[in-house]
Amino acid sequence: MKAPLTIRDLVNLLYQSKEIVEMLFGNKDSINKSELLARDDMTDDRLEKLAQCEIIHENNNIIGLDDRIVTFIEEFLEIGEVTTSFINDNIQSLNENLKYYRIDSNPKFLRNIKRSLKRINSITSREVMKLHKNIDDTYKNQDNYLIKLQELDKYKAKRDDIINLIKESEQIISDAQGFFNTIIDAELNSIVLDLRYILVRNRDYLNEIQSQIIDYINHIQYQDAIYKKVQRLKELKDYEELKYKTNFVEVFIGTKAIMYQRRSLLKSRLSLDELRSDRGYAIVRKVATKLDLLRNTERKLAGKMAEGFDKSNHEESSSLNVAGLVEKFLVSDTDLFQFVMHYQFPKKVGELSLEKRISLYVGISIDYDNKLLISGKLGKMDYLNEKKQKLKLGYAIIKPNRKKAAA
Q1: What is the rounded distance in angstroms from the CA atom of residue 270 to the CA atom of residue 1?
Q2: 97 and 197 share one domain
Q3: What angle in degrees, to the nearest 10, is found between the helix axes of 186-238 and 145-175?
Q4: pTM above the 0.70 mark?
């Protein structure tokens, strides 16, 4: 039984064999053992050691990288096939830990919630970038038209899968927003806001990728139609039927200046690196000038607002006197959450829902923190959601800070 390798030994071994790993990974294939042994830096002992450590594998004198090494490098470099299972796994983990934390406010579940949110953020962005790269590589490097179309259809389906997972993630965050507001954790709020922004940005990017896929498919079908026509002409020519069974010669003679006829131009996308260069800047200015985008346009003055346009908003905001509500709370003997939950608002305000009362509780705790005393203790309240399920709601117990209020 061989002794297990330490992390340091594995790193040293990979570093010493970096050229071999780079060559094998660059080929993404396999290589003959004799070709490897012909190198000055490779011996039978080194090959045997790499095989024992499962960095390479050998089959009939053909050597390749172990699949785990290839997968690790692809994940690190954000290349390789697009996989949506990682996003789905973290969405399921987020759902589970949200459910667990509602049952038991254990910090472990809160850490798992943050970890799942961060992973959804990073993995979604990574898979979107991989999808874009694979689509470009397929269109530019795949020679067979049929395979190219099938590959693009596959990536189109994966694009739809990622879109659905993004929508599912946004729905989970939206449904849990009231629950997040009850957790006083600045890091969690920052993670949620960042994830919302990243999901919106990736969804917009995927919409651009969708139009790019359609554009590529149209180009391929256009090129495929031309290729079939050329093949048919070649077939007729090979059988010496082009001249005698068709009017090809008459059509060709009657067509003047074929090379100067207008051709259908295929759109191509410039890379960001190209656009940042001096040549890219010149191209952008040329296009902008052609589209008349550089002219100085005079903006007209805004029209006069209708009188009393803001009256409705003013009445709505004045109907809920938050400052007066806080003053009443400061002279009460209960905590802020219970005070807001059971407070009888005037008829012009109406009956506030649970979510609006929670939002009011969070807003007061933020805007009037200098008059409040956060005890550090947590309270719990049972409530029924829209599906009539019984859940627990945790909240921070906040009392009036009478010393600061008096000051």
Answers
A1: 56
A2: yes
A3: 160
A4: no
